[in-house]
Amino acid sequence: MDFYFVKYKLRGRVTAEEGLGYFFGKFNENPEYDVVIVPTRYSNYLSVDLSLDYTAFTKNFAELKRRIFKQIPEAEDMSQELLNYLRGYISRKGGQLFGAELSAAIQDKDSDLVHYVIQEVFKEWAPKVEVVVDFGEVAFEELSAENFMQLLDEYEAEGLGDVLKRADLSDLPEIFPLVDPIKGRTIAEFDLGEPIFFVILNVRKPENLERLKQLYPKHFSQGSSVVPLAGILVGKELIRGKKTDYFLIKVDIGEGFVGKAVVPKSIKVMSDYSRYEEKVAQAESRQWESKLEQMLNEEKAVSRPVNQPVVKTSSGFDKQDFLIAFLLTLMVLGMILIFSYFFML
Questions:
Q1: Quick one: which of 53, 171, 242, 278 has the most CB atoms within 10 Å?
Q2: Spans of all domains in the chain
């Protein structure tokens, strides 16, 4: 899990107020949070669906908050008061401890525990506060994909379609950087020559796709880039949209390939190389686990035909068991060799 994300609605029966908010943070770390509160008579304003993903929810939340503050004057003071309370509560409890509690509960998919942790937050705020909670895990890749899909919906409305058809851009592979809302940096903060971490979304020319797959075989699966790559930022250009501003970036992928991306000015992208290496290692590990599962399933299909029932004795050792034992033995031997190497230094 890269991030945890908890969304909630609250209702104070005694205080006659209702609210909508969220906690979002890296695994075992201090969360970012926001909340908007309205008097109960305006509860129909809080119409955001808690099941939305991170990008859609936070976008709708921000728009809703602006509208509420504009149309309900007392809501801004009420919301700020609760934000001050949350800041004090998390400070007293310890941000990392609070983040660790949420992370553990979400990782275990324990909805009762997540609900209890959020309920406890508001216990001292007001008596008889009711909360409804939705939560989930979020990966860097999911954030990047969500932001890109949202951007696709806005391309034409923002007048970005013509930009990507420029002669110097039309044939370049389309990429998108890994999004890191907490510790990332906006494109404006990057200098030319700095590394950028990204996934390849589309390669127009089949021969270029085949060449990239040959150059980076571990990063592609069935024609798609599934493991992030690192490149060098070689160009960035500010583009004025109709509603917001964007950066058009060019990234040197290597071996003569340059990728293009249009990134909203406000989005923070990953800039920590150690975090990128961790993501690559996790992705490669997941690919190996998938490959192992495929090998076991193939072996099982060969050794156990459907039309021939198999009776396995308690002392028997079929090919699948042998393969598992063999792989575990290799792993143990590898660990022993690594430890031996370090102790001999």
A1: 53
A2: 3-138, 142-273
